Every structure is written in C-alpha cells, then in structure tokens.
Amino acid sequence: MNIDFERISELITKGQIEQLQEQTNQAIETGTEPAILLNKGLLPGMDKVGQLWRNGDMFMPEVLRSAKAMSKAMDILRPHLSKDDMGSAGKMVLGTVAGDLHDIGKDLAGMMFEGAGYEVLNIGIDQPNEAFVNAAIEHKPDVLGMSALLTTTMPRMGEVINSLKESGIRDEMAVIIGGAPVTKEFADEIGADLYAPNAGSAVELTKQYFAQNNS
Amino acid sequence: MQISVMPKTNLTMSTRTNYSIQQTPHFQILSDNQKERIYNGMLRTLQYTGANVHHEGARELFKKAGCKVDGIKVFFPSEVITNALATVPPVTEVFPWNGDESKKITIEKDRSYFGPGPTPPNFIDPDTLERRPYIRKDASTVARVCDALPNMGYVQSLGSISDVSNGLADVYEFADMVRNTTTPIMSWSFTRNGCRDIHRMAIAMAGGEEEFRHRPNYIFYGEPISPLVSDFHAIDKCMYCAENRIPQVYSPCAIGGGTVPATHAGQLVVALSESMVGVIASQLISPGTSVIIGGVQSILDMRNSIYSYGAPELSLLSAAHTEVVHYCGLPMYSQSGCTDTKKMDIQSAMEAALSINAAMMSGANFVHDNGYTESGMTGDIFQAVMADELIGMARIIEAGIEVNEETLAVDVIKNVGSGGHYLYEDHTMKWFRKHWQPTLMDRNSYESWQEKGQKTMKDRIIEKTRNLIDNYEGPNNEVPENADQEIEKILQEAEVRIKNDPES
Question: Which of A168, B251, B333, B465 is exposed most, by the fewest CB atoms within 10 A?
Fold first, then answer.
C-alpha cells in the first residue's frame, strides 16, 4: 500500500490527532519503514508548522495542537525507531522548581519539545531539587528543563545544577532554564547551557545548541 | 381675616433648584442580566469546580465555614460566598503617614485612584534610557516622582529590587518608598514574614499599632495563581492582612486563552472566582476588613506568546470586570497606562491613552500598571509621568458637565448678546480656571514652539521626569527620627531572618 506522506504532513499542520494516529498505525502495519515515515511525513509536517508560525500564519493554540499530534504519532513510532533515526530529538525531563506553583510556561515549552519529536517527561510543579536529579539519573535525558516564575525560587535552579555535578552527570545533558524573571545573565551565572526567553524559542535554541556542540 | 403669605422666590417656583443630581459619567459594557450570569458563573465554578488552596490552616477555616474540602481542593457553597460579600465594608479610608488630608484615600464606590504597578524585573534607567535590572535606588525614585505627580493617587514600585539579599526585595522596597512619599503605598511581599516586616514599618510610621488600626496608612497587594490556585504564601499573606486589618488586594493575572477561557465572559467567571477565595478567607478571619479584587485582565497574544498589556481587550475586560466586581459590592483593582512596546514611542502613548480613558470611564477604584512597558516586564518612570498627564485629561471627561442656573449662564449670554466676547465677564474670570491645563502637551504657536527649542513630547517627558528626580525632595526629611531608626532596625532583623532561613 502506498502511504500518502503529504497527507500525513497535512494532518500534522491541521492538528488532526486521531486521524494522524490512525494513519501512523496503518503505515506501520502495512510495513512502511518507520524512519521514512518520520522523515517524509511527520518532520516535514512540523517544519511546515514552524514556517507558518514564523510567518505569523499559525497561532499558538494551533501550533500546540500540531505538536500534540506529532507527539501522539511519535508515541506510536518510537518503539520502532533506532537512536540514529531519532536524530537530535531525544528525551527531556522538565519541571518547575521547589516553592513555585507556576506551570503554564513550562507546559508550553514541554509541548513544543514534544512537537519537535522529543519524549518529554514533565515532572510537574513545586519539585524539590532531588526530584530533578533523580529523574535525570533514572531517565538519562538529553535535555533537562527548569522553570521558575519567582525571584525567590530562581536559586533552586543553580542548586539543581550543582547537585547534577555532584552526581557526576552534569555533562550528560544540556540544561535549559526559563521563566519571567530569568535572564541570560542568570543562566550563565548558575552554569546552565541554555536560556529561552519564551516557550516558542526554546526548541529552536536547543536545536542550534546541539548542532554547534555535535559538529 | 389675616392671611400670611410667603414671598415668592425662585425656590418655590419649581422643584428643579431644590436638588442637584450627582452624576459621574461612566460607560457600561454589561447589562444587569449579563452581570448576574457572570456572577452566577462564579458561584457555579466555586461550588462545583472548586479552587486549590495550598494551605492547611486556610482549608480548615473554609471547612469550618461549611465548605467541602477534598485534598487541597475546596468547594465553596454559595451561602459562604454571599456571607463573605455581606461583610466587606462599603467604605474604608487610608491615611498618608504625615496627616496630609489631600492625599487621603477613600475606598468606596465612584472614587478612583491611579498608580503604578508592582514587581517587573527590569527598569528603564532614568539617565541612559536603557533597560536594566531594577535596583534599590529605583524604589525611592519612583516613590518621590509619584509623590510629586498630582494624578497618582497611590504608589507602587514599578519593579522588584535585584541588588539586595535574595528574598528581601519586598522589605527594602517598602522601607525606602515609605520614607520618600506620603502618598499611600500599595506594598507586596514574598511571605508572611515580609508582610510582618512591612507592617511593622507602617506601624512605626503611623506612630503605634492602635494608631494604625484607626488610621491605616498602606494597602497590601497579593495575588493567587490563575487558574483557580491559591498558593501557600498568597493565602497566608491574605490571612495575615485580615488578622491585622490591613486593607488588601487579592487578585489574579488572568491570561485569556492561556490560564482562563478565550471568551471574555469565561475569563471574568474564572478571574472573579480566583479573587473570591481571598475575599472569603479575609472575611472569615476578620469580618469587615477591607478587600479589593480585580487584577490584570488581558489576553495571551497567540502569535508572540506574550501577555498583552496594550491589547484593547485589556480595557474591555477590565471595564466589564469592574462592573461585575461592583455588582458584588466590592471595590475594583483595574489597570491602564501600560504598553507592550519596549521604548517610549508612539505605541506606548497610544496604548496608555486608550486604556487610561477606558479605565476612567469604567469607574474602577484603583487603576494600576501606569508605567508598565514591555508587557509588564519593565517598569518605566517616564511612562508613569506621561500617564499622569493622560489621567488628568481623562479626569476632565469623567468629571462631566455641571448644569445649573449659574453654569447655564443665560443671564451672562443676555449681557454679551450677539457679537462681542466673554473675556471681560466676571463669569469667565470665575470659571475659566476650571479648564484643564497641560504640563506636557504642546499648545504653543509654531513660532514659540521653535523659540523654545522645537521639543517633541519625548523631550518634554524626559525633561519633566529628570527635573522631578533631580529637584523634588519629597518628604524624606519629615520622617520622624524614631520611625527612621525603627525601619533600619527592622531591615537589620530581616537580614538576620533571611540569613538563617533563606526561604523564610
């Protein structure tokens, strides 16, 4: 059976989650190579989304819907993909630091990463430092994301980074931080690898980071 | 038979001159029926969806009052809500610490006070005009400049101090501001401890605890998290204010399409519900303590994922929210004079002008964020100075037109007749000074504008602001010595507190 990759891409851009899941399952059942499905169907769909978003032709809720569709399709596809097939899109652990109950920015960022093909483990709000470190040890993420909306909770991010160092796993992942009072300077100060001023730019910055560091 | 006859006077000829109607022109967005439906939406939400309250003591309080508590979620039956609304006082006064009656605040219907807003991380440097982190000296600058601005009815700091011990930005801010303005401050804090430190300073300025209770001299600002979450510190501070009879604001930043529905009616339902948790807590603890609700009501810009402070929806939502809050019998904390732009420019003036006039015409009681730029990320004293002028203009519109025999001036019109002019009339002498006079707007002739250096509005705003910063002393030297010492002592103790426990 011929798989209509353009149709798959279109289901991504239109954010039609259930239909995309059906098509993805069907493609796998009929023997389509998972890497080809990813590279010819899903990723071009998300590229198109990125392009429409940058041109101002798509809006946040539409992009998130597309990202959700991508994420659901990836859930089906992931067991069939090798590490090489995945490219830079790997695993992410994400949470809001202790004492902070804000979650919308973090959740937006998480959804954007899912849209880029990442497997995102969102550990939630008000997470103690150990929770980040334990999740990092257990899940071996490529990216660890932390969020804080309060100047009083921001220092927790630096503490988590120190704990990662003490556990000897700091260099195994890129650390990205964000939140309204967080700045590039603060990220540098505490030794984070990346700072994203908003959810939309987080994925792009991470991609650039890996492109530079893997070259 | 003798009949006594009362002489005829103007007064007996008609009832018209026996009364004058007190009417403040306000516009209306919602019908009574719409307000009722939004109010009922709040009742339904609090009763069936409930709100998360991350505070055991508060949950106990709610439970005792008849609420259903399930884990951290509290469900509020409507009688708990209506009982709370019934005890909110119709009027509360807030007094400047030096007794200046002209700066007294009366929290009641149809009175409005404009001011800046709290806690952006950045500030526009008054010397370089560049954005940088907000530092300690900015708090006294903002306090002093706003003390001098006639249309700033209360003061907030326009920032969060970055260069003091982490966790003490709140306390240092109040310490410096209260000594640089007599205009009542709206303070904020991280925790109950910060609240207590600030309160002790206010008591020192009032001259004692009894004096404070009799004549409160500041208002506290607290904020739940949208949607429908009261975090531990938010509700803990709210309870502290109620215990100490500190007038307080309890209001969320509701983000349309983000933390609340994209429909305006749905946004108002959620925002009202979030505030109501604080209203109920305050009234259960201390019936009759003053509480103000409202908050930032605007939309998530779905293209740039920012919370828009210049959107027309901000004004529409805030005006409608004002009506619903007044329907509940509560005072409204609204917003205006803010912008999404990064630098002082035409956009910042456009957005400020529209929102200030809308807030004025909505009848909101406290209108904050005058001086916010970059979507609430940067405080800008120049924007506040510009807003002050706009507020003055909007006040003229809100003041309406007085109509009576004297202002109709039919006799004066008869005297002048056709042709001629009114410049020599006593009537003109008496009334012309009521016309508004600009301090920033240019009304020069072309020639005198040239002569005076061809200044643009931007030039004039900078000049006026820097002039105030450099030359207006403020009330710093009027601060009683013992109060000054007490404030320094409280700051030192706060340093010890935060050193012993950085999260206190």
Answer: A168
> Which residue from A minimizes the CA distance to B377?
A180
Nearest of A110, A60, A119, A59 to residue A88 by alpha carbon: A119
* Contact present, A131 and A162 (Cβ < 8 Å): no
Nearest Cα of chain A lies from the Cα of B308 at a distance, in angstroms, of 14
The DSSP string of B13-54 is: H-SGGG-----------S-HHHHHHHHHHHHHIIIII-EEE-
Domain spanning A90-213: CATH 3.40.50.280: yes
pLDDT at B23: 72
Whether A56 sits inside 8 A of B303 (CB atoms) is yes
DSSP secondary structure letter of residue B152: B
Across chain A, mean pLDDT equals: 91
Instruction: Name the helix (H) or strand (E) containing A86.
Output: helix A83-86
**Do residues B226 and B274 lie in contact, with contact meaning Cβ atoms separated by under 8 Å?**
yes
Quick one: DSSP state of residue B401? -
Residue B337 carries which DSSP code? S
Residue B3 banded pLDDT, cuts 50, 70, 90: low
Provide mean pLDDT across the span A43-54: 88
Strands (E), B257-401: 291-294, 296-301, 306-307, 332-335, 366-368, 372-373, 378-379
pLDDT at B342: 96
Q: Are A85 and A132 in contact (CB under 8 A)?
A: no
CA distance A161 to A145: 11
Q: Is B160 on the interface with A (CB under 8 A)?
A: yes
- For B129-143, what is the HEC assignment? CCEEECCHHHHHHHH
Please give the structure tokens belonging to residue B346: 């035409």
Query: What confidence score (pLDDT) does residue A53 get?
Result: 84
Residue A3, pLDDT score: 80
* CB nearest A101 (choices: B54, B257, B259): B54
For position B11, what pLDDT does the model report?
Answer: 47
Q: Which of A102, A155, A198 sits opposite B166 (nearest CB)?
A: A155
Do β-strands B291-294 and B332-335 pair in parallel, antiparallel, or remain unpaired? Answer: parallel
Q: Is the pLDDT of residue B5 over 90?
A: no
Residue B160: closest CA among chain A residues belongs to which residue? A151
Q: What are phi and psi of A130, to 5 degrees?
A: -60, -30
Q: Using CB atoms and an 8 Å cut-off, which of residues 363-402 of chain B contact chain A? A: 377
- CA geometry: angle at A30 spanning A29 and A33, to 5°? 90
Domain(s) of CATH 3.40.50.280: residues in chain A: 90-213
State residue B356 phi and psi, 5-degree precision. Answer: -65, -45
- From A39, A47, A49, select the one nearest A5 (Cα to Cα): A39
Q: Could you report the per-residue pLDDT of B369-409, keeping only the tens digit for each?
A: 999 999 999 999 999 999 999 999 999 999 999 999 999 99
Nearest to B386 by CA among B463, B471, B318: B463
pLDDT at B220 over 90: yes
Which residues does chain A have within 8 Å of residue B231's beta carbon, measured at their own beta carbons? 101
Q: Is the pLDDT of residue A89 over 80?
A: no
Quote the CA–CA distance of B365 and B105 in Å, as a whole number: 10
CATH superfamily of domain region A5-80: Methionine synthase domain (1.10.1240.10)
Q: Residue A200: its pLDDT value, please?
A: 76
Q: How far apart are CA B464 and CA B265, in angstroms?
A: 41
Stretch 59-98 of chain A: residues touching chain B, C-beta under 8 Å: 59-61
Report the C-alpha gap between B358 and B336 in whole angstroms. Answer: 8
* For range A10-24, the mean pLDDT: 95
Cβ distance of B305 and A99 shorter than 8 Å: no
Tell me the residues of chain B between 304 and 333 that have a Cβ less than 8 Å away from chain A: 304-306
Pinpoint the residues of chain A covered by CATH 1.10.1240.10: 5-80
- B205 CB within 8 Å of a chain A CB: no
